[in-house]
Amino acid sequence: MSDGMMQGVLVRGFGGFYVAAAPDGTEYTLRCKKKFRRMHLSPLVGDEILFIPGEGEEHGWLEEILPRKTECIRPPVANVTLLLVVICPSPEPDMLLVDRLLVRARLQGMKTAIVVNKCDMDASLAEEIRAAYAGAECPVLAVSAREATGLEAVRALMQDESCCCLTGQSGVGKSTLLNTLLGLNLETGDISQKIQRGKNTTRHAQLLIRDGIRVLDTAGFSLLELDAKMEPESLRHVYPEFTEHEGCCRFTPCLHDREPGCAVTAAVEAGEIDAGRVERYRQLLAEVRETWKQRYS
Ligand SMILES: Nc1nc2c(ncn2[C@@H]2O[C@H](COP(=O)(O)OP(=O)(O)OP(=O)(O)O)[C@@H](O)[C@H]2O)c(=O)[nH]1
Ligand SMILES: [Mg+2]
Ligand SMILES: [Zn+2]
Predict the structure, then answer these.
(1) 3-state secondary structure 228-245
(2) Distance from the CA of 213 to the center of ligand 1, in angstroms?
(3) CATH number for position 248
(4) 3-state class (DSSP) for residue 85
(5) In whole angstroms, how far apart are CA 48 and each of 77, 91, 207?
(6) Contact 28, 8 (CB under 8 A)
(7) Disulfide check for 82: which of 118, 161, 167, 200 has CB 3.0–4.6 Å away?
(8) Which residue range forms the structural domain that includes residue 213?
(9) Using a 6 Å cutoff on CB, does residue 265 contact ligand 1?
(10) Does residue 72 sit within a domain?
């Protein structure tokens, strides 16, 4: 490393500035070198970087972005190894959004889990989701951030990871959960009673480092597209429920859509795979096929 260069992780950004945390926890305000714009490379929260600190009140310079392990577009964060998708009884969960997030994460080799929050309001949602995702290699954790129940299981999952990320719709309680779990004071917001939706309280992703846990709090959202370059054939490989049925269909390859003699359809009818998961898979498959068809136009 050249003179004065330090390594750190980007913890947040604001108005063209970036804040990096050094290994000892000290934070440095930085600006980004122009070369990144030429390279079409934008720094992301979670990036491991090399930087030169500024003197006194002066900002320093972000010099290098080290290779990313993973990269998300929504939320815009880097190096996540465990994605925790948070849902709750109200606002009502959008399971297609959940599956989109799981697909995107799996394609990059991230681990995933679903956190069902606000179990104090209704404990049945967690049971439903647990049953539906039983074969999905995605643990389902039932918690109440408000009553601080179920949090030890979340902490245990997080402790083994180099970087976790909470994502999901606005108002599900991502920031509240981190406040209770890590003793933080992040801003939280009510949900609108009229439309049962969050108010987009968290605006930007922020990396929090506490008790040896690195976790990202991110802005809630409700729209997400799958990768435009994704081949229809690859979607089924991120559905662990299908693995034991691969090669058992009448046609090969079978995309488990509506093909006759499909083993996945048979497994749904036998109650071995959740019907909703497969229905949403087919919805996503139709979308992927459509964008794949238009890839040269
Ligand atoms: N009943 C109940 N309410 C909760 C719980 N956790 C959070 N809430 C409430 O849900 C609302 C939204 O919480 P936030 O933490 O701001 O939600 P968020 O997911 O961070 O939302 P965005 O930042 O907008 O994406 C607040 O009114 C919280 O008090 C819980 O476990 N039980
Ligand atoms: Mg929030
Ligand atoms: Zn099939």
Answers:
(1) CCCCHHHHHHHCHHHHHH
(2) 21
(3) 1.10.40.50
(4) strand
(5) 11, 34, 12
(6) yes
(7) 161
(8) 82-217
(9) no
(10) no
Task: Please indicate whether residue 166, judged by its CB atom, sits closer than 6 Å to ligand 1.
Answer: no
Cα–Cα distance measured from residue 226 to residue 177, given in angstroms and rounded to the nearest whole number: 27
Of 151, 188, 192, 216, best ligand 1 pocket probe by most atoms within 8 Å of the beta carbon: 188
pTM of the model: 0.96
90, 45: one domain: no
- Name the closest-CA residue to atom 23, ligand 1: 202
Tell me the CA–centroid distance for residue 197 and ligand 2, in Å.
13
In 128-219, which ranges are E strands?
Answer: 140-142, 164-167, 206-210, 213-217
The residue written with tokens 């122009």 in the block is 34
* Same-domain status, 24 and 139: no
Instruction: Give me the amino acid identity at 212.
Output: G
In tens, the pLDDT along 213-237 reads: 999 999 999 999 998 889 999 999 9
User: How far is the C-alpha of 251 from the C-alpha of 244, rounded, in Å?
Assistant: 16
Same domain, 86 and 213: yes
Nearest in space to 88 (alpha carbons), one of 183, 173, 205, 202: 173
Closest CA to 112 of 124, 100, 94, 120: 100
What six digits make up the tokens of 20? 């990096």
- Give CA–CA dist 70/195, Å, rounded: 35
User: Is residue 146 in contact with ligand 1, taking CB distance under 6 Å?
Assistant: yes
- Given a cut of 90, whether residue 192 has pLDDT beyond it is no
State residue 290's pLDDT score: 94
